[in-house]
Amino acid sequence: MGVTTGQEVAVARAVEVEGVAARRDEDGRLGRAVLPRGERSAWKVRAMGGAAAASAAASTTHAGGASSLVARVMAARGLDASGSDAAAFLEPALNQMHEPSLMVGMDRAATRLLEALKAGEPIAIYGDYDVDGVSATTILYHTLLALNPAATVTTYVPHRIDEGYGLNADAVRELAGRGHRVIVSVDCGVTALEPARVARSLGVDLIITDHHNFAGVDAGGTVVLPDAYAVVHPRLGRDGRENGEGAYPFGELCGAAVAFKLAWRLATMATGSSRASEPMRHLLLEMLSLAALGVVADVVPLLGENRVIARFGLRRIKGSSLTGLRALVEASGLAGDNVNADDVGFKLGPRLNACGRMGHAREAVELFTTATPERAQEIAEGLTKLNNKRRATEQAIFKQAVEEAEARGMTGDDRRAIVLAHDEWHQGVVGIVCSRLVERYHRPTILMARGEHGCHGSGRSIDGFSLHRALQRCASHLTGFGGHDMAAGVRVAPERVDAFAEAFVEVANEQIGVSDLVSVSEYDAEARIAELSLGQVEALSRLAPFGRCNPAPVLRVSGLRVETRPETFGKYNKHLSMRAGDGQGPTLRLVGWNWAGSIERVPRGTRVDALIKPTVSIFAGSANVEGELVDLRVLG
């Protein structure tokens, strides 16, 4: 089965920057004071040990060996390049995926849905308004109709501003009033206690499929679940505990991946065997492209099954038979290209998310489900316009938030979190701005839009500080919240904003030290320029797709001398380019995106250490290795 669950966790702990394995000092805070500093971040080498380290060391003795850099990077991530786990990692296969029936509640959910299809009962799919939710909704929609083309299948996605996140009681009442006695949620619902009670009272069989954090645990350690017909969640154990006995082997699936698992189980259960019919197998392979969108856009760990889904799903996007997906690819300027994780993260994903942020995500669902080619093109082009509008709105909010945070002293050492609310901010965009503020000030950030019905907003965190647990400690000031350790949504009464801000800052000050208010750049290994041959760097692409817990390789190249006068380039001359060498061979072009402001720090002749992402640049048909600058340190 490839990387085992225990090893996946070990890899995640080694790679996740200052995450679960964050070293803490005697004060209980994240310990970063002793790390060396570059121009923009503290530097930390990824952990290397045991057999993986020995294998990596052996590989480096073979000068010019095409696998040596790959071996060292894999060792830094807890994988022995000579072992079977490494082979499974480098060559993921669909047979590495686990049987869906291993997930608690899966068979009960699938059985009820098949009964509804057979009896002609209308089925409503209730999704979320982000990429993961839209993809999950689409997967289940196509699967149900493939099993019974005459079925009545309705999709429902809440309006982000008017209804907010998650399953809501009013929507359950509306769907029940329209005759739906079976509602299945995707990418939401695991904390929907009241909507589940409403569904039960109305005679609705509510099936919940989700991957988000549970509402909490009772005194006995059992997770609190909605009173639903079935709850399908990858971290729910058969003993009722999170990650408890009998839990699914891989608990880090996104919502679309859970929906894919349900689709898979529906397909096999429909045949009464362990194999799906040939048409359904073809459909499931097609649905991998949508599951991959969710995996990448929802930033779940790209390990285990997520890696398999991403590797095979991304490959299928270019030639997808889905009219809407092809239209989106074309509108994103990717027609004719192979789509990678960066394309999802920076082109496809933002367009789909813009629909939920600036309009209504039902158009994104329509794009992937019922749209004709003409309508699909219209929606896809509209998403591009919405995304451009989102960018302008985001920039305006960011500027205001920076000014207000600095004016209120929330960017200094005494207040190690940012909590702001504003009358003019767009609720659908504040989450993105939170991420930018975290990147700039490296502290947890919550931004809210004041509206007629209170303050609604989003939060983002830094590694090692659980946003969800912090909000639990501040729950008395909130009217609602939910999410993950790294991201959450909040609702606050206007008169409680100041009290909430003080309480949240107090929690942050307890857990975050002054020395932690700097980002950390992890690197996989040290390397010399002579090692960065075209073959070596191209071999690193075998580690793709890159994302959370499997970032693009970063190497430390030490003792460099800037050999040319640095130059700025780009439309607004925001970027920096220079050549550097270590005196032992060829020089390497270093490219720093948005590094133009540092040009005076690195005149020709300056000695530096650099953290780089090795890349291959193709110009005029010629391929050359370059170093994408992550950070540098000027040597005295």
Strand content: 15-25%
The span between the termini is: 50 Å
- The largest beta-sheet arranges its strands as 3-2-4-5-6
Average pLDDT: 91
What is the radius of gyration computed over CA atoms, rounded to a whole number of angstroms?
25 Å
Low-confidence stretches: 1-28, 49-54, 57-67
What is the 3D form?
globular
SS-based structural class? Answer: alpha/beta
Query: How does the major sheet shape up?
Result: 5 strands, parallel
Tell me roughly what share of residues is in helical segments: 25-40%
Number of distinct helices: 19
* Number of β-strand runs: 19
Overview of this protein structure:
By secondary structure, this protein is of the alpha/beta class. The chain is built from 19 helices and 19 strands. The N and C termini lie far apart (50 Å). The longest helix is centred in the middle third of the chain and has 35 residues, at 373-407. It has a five-stranded parallel β-sheet, with helices on both faces.
